[in-house]
Amino acid sequence: MFGCCCSSSGKTALIAAIVGAAGVLGGAVLTRSLEKAGPDAGPAVVVPASHQPEAEMTPEQMMAAMADWAAPVEEHEMLKSMAGTWDATARFWMAPDAPPTESKGVSEAELILDGRFVSQHFTMPDFMGIPFEGYGVVGFDKAKGKYINAWIDNFGTGMMTMEGVADKKAHTVTWTGTAVYPGPEGVTETPVKHIIRHDGPDKMVMEFWEPPAPGEDMIKNGEITYTRRK
Fold it and tell me: I want to staple 166 with a disulfide (CB 3.0 to 4.6 A). Which of 24, 49, 94, 101 is the partner?
């Protein structure tokens, strides 16, 4: 879950991203257990499918099911590797044949909610002449069996969300989502992909990919190298 802005060829950089730690698979499917309809009916209770009985659940069974559903799994353990202070070097290509811009930043990340999520504060004093600041949250969604993240920053007023799948053998996490840009004809949406490679416990390299124009294949247009501060 490491964030920064990235650029599309020939455009001012306005994307923000978050990248998470390794891990893949998981989770039960959510179902709903409803009490009998009526004027005194209570609210619906969300429980894992593995705990869904044929008959109504007792309050004790509901509490046990919810405790099981909320319990962190192996993928949440992987989030611990993201916590800490990281020095970042960002390089982005504003056009395919142009030299990259380079900026320095710092990421402060910490575990929250008993290790279920990681929150991040990212700052870059000078990104193309503008101070950059962003906040992100990364977790693992047991229902989806995927990593999830949400990101906000001072380069826009929206929230970007992405989903990530990890490859343990390759030590990578691939995130996919949609970026929103301002354009001459209004808002433009672009599919984006971010790949993070783990080069040991104290170094990660994050790649930014997107199409240079609608309908074209994605190209790499940026990367950030993160080094854990000792």
Answer: 24
Helices then strands, counting H and E runs in the chain, come out as 2, 14
pLDDT digits (tens, 9 = 90+) for 135-194: 999 999 999 999 999 999 999 999 999 999 989 888 888 999 999 988 888 888 999 999
Q: Residues 190-203: pLDDT tens digits?
A: 999 999 998 988 99
**Count of the separate structural domains present in the chain:** 1
Domain that includes residue 223, residue range:
5-25+77-228
**136 CB-near residues (< 8 Å, 6+ apart):** 1, 3, 16, 18, 119, 120, 122, 149, 150, 151, 152
Residue 70 domain flag: no
- Does the reported pTM lie above 0.90? no
CB atoms within 10 A of CB 121: 14
Residue 155 sits in a domain whose CATH number is 2.40.128.20
Report how far apart, in Å, the C-alpha atoms of 110 and of each of 38, 63, 68, 123 are: 45, 29, 24, 15
Provide, rounded to the nearest whole percent, the portion of the chain with pLDDT above 90: 52
Residue 87 lies in a domain: yes
Q: Is residue 54 part of a domain?
A: no
Between strands 101-112 and 117-127, the pairing is antiparallel
Cα 76 from Cα 66, distance rounded (Å): 17
